Amino acid sequence: MLFGSLLLLLLLPHTIIEADTDEDLLTQSTEQVIEPRYRIVLNEWENMDLDGTAPFERAVPPSSFEQADDLQLLPESDSFGYDDRVLYWHNNETVEFEVEVDQTGLYEIGFDYYPLGEMIMPIEGAIQVNGEFPFFESRRIVFPVNWENESDEFEADRFGNDIIPGQDPIQSWEQLKVEDSNHLHSRSLQYYLEEGTNTISLSNLRGELLIGNAYITSPEEVLEYEEYISQTDGSEVIDSLHVYEAEYPSYKNSSYVRPVATHDPSAVPYDSRNLLLNTFGGESWTESGQSATWEITVEESGFYYLSLKALQNHSSGAPVFRTIYINGSLPFEEAEQYRFRNSSSWYNETIGDEAGEPYLFYLDEGTNTVTLIADASPVERVLFTIDEVMSGMEELSLSIRKLTGNQLDANRDWNLSEYIEGVDDLLLEWADMLEDEADYLGGLTTGDDSTDIVTLQIAADRLRTLAKNPDEIPGRLTELSEGSNSVAQLLGNLIMEVQEQPLLLDRIYVHGEETLPDPEAGMWTKFTSSVTRFFQSFTSENLATTNVEDDVVDVWINRPRQYVDLLQNMLDQNFTPETGIEVKLSIMPEEQKLVLASAANTQPDLALGISNWLPYELAIRGAAVDLREFDDFNEVGNQFAPGAFLPLIVDDGIYGLPETQDFFVQYYRRDIMNYLDIPIPDTWNDVVSILPELQRYGLNYYTPIAGAVAFKPFQTTAPYIYQFGGDLYQEDGIGAAIDSEDALRGIQFMTDLNTIYSAPLQVPNFYNHFRYSTLPIGIGSFSEYVQLTAAAPEISGWWDISPHPGVEEEDGSVTRWSTGSAQTSMVFDGSGKTDEAWEVLKWWMDTETQTEFANSLLTLYGPEYMWNTANLDSFAQLPWPEEHKETILEQWEHLREVPKTPYAYMVEREISNVWNKVVFEGENARSAVDDSMVTIDREMRRKLEEFGYMENGRVVRPYTIPTIDMVEGWLESDG
């Protein structure tokens, strides 16, 4: 079957064709950029004529590692009790060791290790065998860090609700058998070693640790349940009942798997008024591989039953899975991939077989450990199939776009079957594959349909519909791969959904034949609790915006509850005891309420987390405090990038502080770019020079303009104008300046990228295309950084960032101006507590506070809660990769946000209109700009008259356009 010139698969493993001519591109066999998945390679190895590997274990001490110098090899005195020399492993270092095996076969690799450093972000490495990555999963190996609560008791906040305790990493020697970092394979990874000497390389990707011995062992045999029981024949079932509250694990391998407050009378303990941390896991315990361990103490050695009071009401309706370890080992095969059914109510799950016969677990007298590991490995085959189908669909779509020239005429018919033979059979084959996986999932759910099964069936039905009329596919690509409701979108969403493994636990029972307590509270208890809570809701304090006492600083914050709870606790524990100033935080229902509250004179004293345009809008109406009036403003202001203040300025006043800060940097896939030998561009000229080579392989370069829809905001357009030396406004503020020669050059290049150089016109989600390699390079923001860090572990260590491309000047420097404002904060005028509000704001934006807040968010809630503080000193201290922080801080030196004017919205809209006219209608750029200038001028005069800068068409008061030089001068002179 021929699929045009597609050269890159959508999902890993990716393939690239190396060719010199168009004919070669169509016919030459593929070479891999990224190795095939472990599933494929393991299957090939197992089909080889290999004798079973005899029991084998060999330890290699660090002193035998090659490329390990005296600086890396630490003496025994610095080994933290390892009783031998150890290796200090960090900073992208690679070490090698040789191992000789007696027999060709499959082996497991392990390490003794001691974690060091911040440990908030994962410690990652990569393993090569004899100079090659044997499979893709070997490119990322995670060294887990165990965490424990700072305190064994939960403290209460000002409302009487339990506070999630801080987390401390446990620094101790651990042993790891190398596993798939996504934990989609239930057993340790196996490596093929030839008889004789083999070289194993361990490369550092992120983090630091000490390494002790490396181990090469034959795969471990796991007993079946009957064998397990027979090994301890003669032991009896101990008659006892031990109850453990699940919210108190001894440790877990993820800091953000946490106790949960469940306001349900069936949970123990329960309080109708206050939120108690009375359960464990839930939505914080969804990622495969996350584990929690509880210590269990029994008075007598023998067999016990293990039961869990669980709630598993995942919205998909699918079951979830856990693997159960006893005292650090898998006791028997049946304890692997154990299924927890979906239920809307609590139930006691006694671990047992499908017939309901409970399993017995042998426990020693004294302290034992029970570990539960989230396990998505039962759905690994489903994910693999979805990947395969999505790869094929992207291949087909790219072939069709090349065939049609990406310019579809609704009045033109295509005989697609003549150009792409067998396309209907291919669609039907994909439909069959998806239906097979739907049947497989049906077996896991024991007959109850889940939304995952329904999604697979819908996708299969749509493929069959398209297969009926394959010649119509060019006009129906939105149904196949490009629309928000396409088959590709359905499957893409399902990839994330099907991996989630949430499980909420209330209690753990270790028992004999005793009857367990009922998991659900009685109907009368539930009814009385509901009534009590209803009446208490009228008197209980919460985070709603309400009137506060005169001596309390009223702060409205536009952030989710997790952020507000954490900040309120920090204020109560640190700020108020030090200053004596009481602070009450309230969650802002919506930003527009600030404008209404200001008009009604019910505004707060301080607002946090608001959009960067709000301080200007309120300040120009006299509702905000000029922060330059405070004597220590320059000391505070120098913590931020000067360009971030520009939208917060009215005349000579600064009416807000940057709180968080975005960044636009260049993201690139190192693996793809290195394989294709394409240099990473530094300037726009460099970008233009690599575009033909990228496009030759069906790839492209992403710009934020493609991520916007019909309207292109300033953050996507202003950088081009600034980088080419233009400006948006006249120096006196009376009118736009987008018709200047420099501004026109920027606008022309901005449109040329799409009209001449064929950069993508629309990309709904750069993250997905970057992750799946169809857009291996482009300009992204903080949002992409969080997504790639938190939700793309399979390419961790194989992507990087560099500064935003810019325009090279005559002296060789590069102008890289880009926008970057995110959220901001402001003090309200007229509240009577401006000094106290300023003290709160100073404390909040202080380096120490911002660093503590950022680290606490990451530790308690995970990488999706990365905090992009605008405080430059604090940002430099965050536990992000050092090389990434350096790049972002370098780009922030070129931060130039767009100043606000009363008519800024019209300038923004008209630049967007110019782009649309030039790109879609083929209009001349200068002509389009001239037309827009007329519209802007008309609106400018109307708005400047409204705010008293013009009268009857004459300027009566100058309007100052702030500049970075102006801000820097203020910060130097104030105070």
Describe the structure.
The chain has 5 domains: 47-217, Jelly Rolls (Sandwich), CATH 2.60.120; 225-376 and 501-526, Galactose-binding domain-like (Jelly Rolls); 380-492; 552-662 and 821-892, D-Maltodextrin-Binding Protein, domain 2 (3-Layer(aba) Sandwich); 668-814 and 901-934, D-Maltodextrin-Binding Protein, domain 2 (3-Layer(aba) Sandwich), CATH 3.40.190. It has 27 helices and 42 strands. Helix 25 runs antiparallel to helix 26. It is an alpha+beta fold. The strands form 11 sheets. Strands 3, 4, 5, 7, 12, 13 and 15 form a 7-stranded antiparallel β-sheet that branches. The radius of gyration is 31 Å and the shape is globular. Helix 11 (561-579) links the parallel strand 28 (552-557) and strand 29. Residues 1-19 form the signal peptide. Keywords: Signal. This is Extracellular solute-binding protein. InterPro entries: Bact_solute-bd_prot1, SBP.
Number of helices: 27
Mean pLDDT: 89
> CATH topology of the largest domain, which one?
D-Maltodextrin-Binding Protein, domain 2
Shape: globular
Give a short account of the largest sheet: 7 strands, antiparallel
Low-confidence stretches: 1-32
Structural class: alpha+beta
Distance between the termini: 74 Å
Number of strands: 42
According to CATH, the homologous superfamily of the largest domain is: Periplasmic binding protein-like II
Rg of Cα set: 31 Å
Secondary structure: helix percent: 25-40%
CATH class of the largest domain: Alpha Beta
Estimate the strand proportion.
Answer: 15-25%
Query: What's the domain count?
Result: 5
- What's the CATH architecture of the largest domain? 3-Layer(aba) Sandwich
InterPro entries: Bact_solute-bd_prot1 (IPR050490), SBP (IPR006059)
Signal peptide: 1-19
Pfam families: SBP_bac_1
Keywords: Signal
